[in-house]
TrEMBL record:
One BP term from GO: transmembrane transport
Name by which UniProt lists this protein: Peptide/nickel transport system ATP-binding protein
Keywords attached to this entry: ATP-binding, Nucleotide-binding, Transport
Family as reported in the entry's similarity comment: Belongs to the ABC transporter superfamily.
Highest taxon, organism lineage: Bacteria
Residues covered by the ABC transporter domain: 6-260
PANTHER family: D,D-DIPEPTIDE TRANSPORT ATP-BINDING PROTEIN DDPF-RELATED, TRANSPORT ATP-BINDING PROTEIN
Organism listed in the record: Phycicoccus duodecadis
Keyword Ribonucleoprotein among record annotations: no
A GO molecular-function annotation: ATP binding
Length: 337
């Protein structure tokens, strides 16, 4: 088997709350927010992994962990089978350049006082390109790759539309020569027609440059169009994962079914289960057993006491749900970090 371009093993990020005076006096353990909890995933070269879930499900925290912007509480992130934390300085630098980011809001991700050419050129300077002529030629090439004429390098972000700014953000990410881009809600701030144009750009660049993507979004219509595999998060844990076509054709977990039913028309028939009901539980005090049982229309007694483990089912899918024969319990984690 080939080594995945990016792999996360048992990735967790827990944020302990400061203890109150009463907790100090009673020697009570601090409450812990489990933003990401024991997540495994892989991304192959030239492929797109979609990450979806409600607000508060841990999507963006997972993205920051993959980018090494935050240190995990446990687990590790491997790039080509190597960890930047244990590689030599030169190798670690290259591994970090291999993974770049496109942020959600193009209005705040660019410096309004710099021209778009200067914003891209800054990345090339940090990357070690010392010749000014080479940098400017590379800036012109990157702008043309995202659909802009080279003369636009002298424009400032305020002179561009939201879609134009996001194209500049993509060009800036490409300036580092990445092999994988983590895109955190990259089209959610754009109009629908502009979303389609930016998604087309992502797909064209993937074909031309053999790029891999981790596409983080709450929009299932976007994932249905662009993703090869999908990871569904709920309260920081993976509840379903598998090939995108199989997941959209027949989701196995009630949470995934509810997300699909709550989404705008995606060009497919709807299942009979209802949309997501109720409020997301407090992530610092998640329910015992299956954390989705407080909102699940198919809840059983075992769901309230025993956490299900990801279980292989038909179509290459895996789901953490007691509804599927052969699911095995996953013991609840201890109360303290």
């Amino acid at each position: 088997m080939t080594t995945p371009l990016l792999e996360a093993r048992g990735l967790s990020k827990h944020y302990p709350f400061p203890r109150s005076v009463r907790q100090w006096v009673g020697n009570a353990p601090a409450r812990v927010l489990r933003a990401v909890d024991d997540v495994d995933l892989t991304v192959e070269s030239g492929r797109t992994l979609g990450v979806v879930g409600e607000t508060g499900s841990g999507k963006s925290t997972l993205g920051r962990l993959l980018l090494r912007l935050e240190r995990p509480t446990s687990g590790q992130v491997l790039i080509d089978g190597s960890s930047p934390d244990t590689a030599g300085a030169a190798r670690a630098h290259q591994l970090r350049r291999d993974v770049q980011v496109v942020l959600q809001d193009p209005y705040t991700s660019l410096n309004p006082y710099l021209t778009i050419g200067s914003a891209i050129e800054e990345v090339l300077t940090v990357g070690g390109m010392t010749s000014r002529e080479e940098r400017r030629a590379r800036v012109a090439e990157l702008l043309e790759q995202v659909g802009f004429p080279a003369a636009w390098s002298e424009r400032k972000p305020g002179q561009l539309s939201g879609g134009g700014r996001q194209r500049v953000s993509i060009a800036r990410a490409l300036a580092a020569g990445p092999r994988l881009i983590v895109a955190d809600e990259p089209v959610s701030a754009l109009d629908v027609s502009v979303q389609a144009q930016v998604l087309n750009l992502f797909q064209r660049l993937q074909r031309e440059l053999d790029l891999a993507y981790v596409f983080i979004t709450h929009d299932l219509a976007v994932l249905e169009r662009i993703a090869d595999r999908v990871v569904v998060l709920y309260l920081g844990r993976v509840v379903e994962t598998g090939p995108a076509d199989a997941l959209f054709a027949g989701p196995a977990h009630p949470y995934t079914q509810a997300l699909l039913n709550a989404a705008p028309a995606l060009g497919r028939s709807r299942s009979t289960s209802s949309a997501v009901a109720g409020e997301l539980p407090d992530p610092a005090s998640p329910p015992a057993g299956c954390t989705f049982h407080t909102r699940c229309p198919f809840v059983m007694d075992v769901c309230r006491t025993t956490r299900p483990r990801l279980t292989p089912i038909a179509g290459g899918l895996q789901a953490a749900c007691h509804l599927h024969e052969g699911s095995t319990p996953d013991p609840d984690p201890p109360a303290t970090p």
